[in-house]
Design brief:
Length: about 200
């Protein structure tokens, strides 16, 4: 079954609900399992991390849901807002992350964030859009929700002649992103973790 829902753009009051969807979607993701190793606490801690990310992106980028039922969430940032300043992080609820995640997970998260940002800069510096997060409720995967979500921005970037970029954190998602037109420009490792990340670019069509 292919979803025919028209995606809607979310505001800050919906950030918590969107974060809950993303927490479920990324529960078994290799990177987030590394950031929060304790499986019994992962979903709750992920929720706080994702809520900060969504709040930031609502303010400085664009966040979409499949429908008012929030079957899936797509989070996009313009290239000049990919790196969060300290003040922007505080305004988005970043101070609570240390308390919610704990020092170990926070330091891991910051280290990975720095790695992603430095790799990002190696591949594109011109204006573009960054697909920050894409997640669908696990029981609804394969029903067309992810495709509908990404097309909102991809159709626009095609018209405007802009490149899109993402960091894929799960090897099994490579075919999906390649289907949307992204190509791998680098596979890189998170130090001392054995985890691979894939930097991917999509040229406008």
């Amino acid at each position: 079954m292919i979803s025919t829902n028209s995606p809607i753009r979310l505001d800050k009051p919906q950030a918590r609900a969107a974060a809950q969807v993303l927490s479920r979607a990324f529960y078994d993701d290799p990177l987030f399992s590394y950031l929060i190793p304790d499986a019994s606490q992962r979903r709750d801690k992920q929720h706080h991390l994702f809520e900060t990310m969504v709040r930031y992106s609502v303010s400085y980028g664009e966040v979409y849901a499949t429908s008012p039922n929030l079957e899936g969430i797509a989070v996009w940032l313009p290239s000049d807002r990919v790196e969060m300043t300290s003040w922007q992080g505080i305004r988005s609820g970043g101070l609570s992350i240390i308390l919610k995640l704990g020092l170990r997970s926070t330091l891991r998260q910051l280290s990975v964030y720095d790695l992603m940002c430095s790799t990002h800069k190696c591949h594109i510096l011109s204006p573009h859009w960054y697909l920050y997060l894409l997640g669908v409720e696990p029981e609804l995967m394969g029903k067309g929700y992810a495709s509908n979500l990404v097309k909102v921005v991809l159709n626009r970037t095609d018209r405007e002649g802009l490149v899109c970029y993402l960091d894929n954190t799960n090897e099994k998602n490579l075919p999906m992103y390649q289907h949307y037109g992204f190509r791998v420009v680098e596979e890189y490792k998170v130090p001392k973790s054995g985890i691979s990340l894939w930097a991917m670019l999509r040229e406008p069509r």
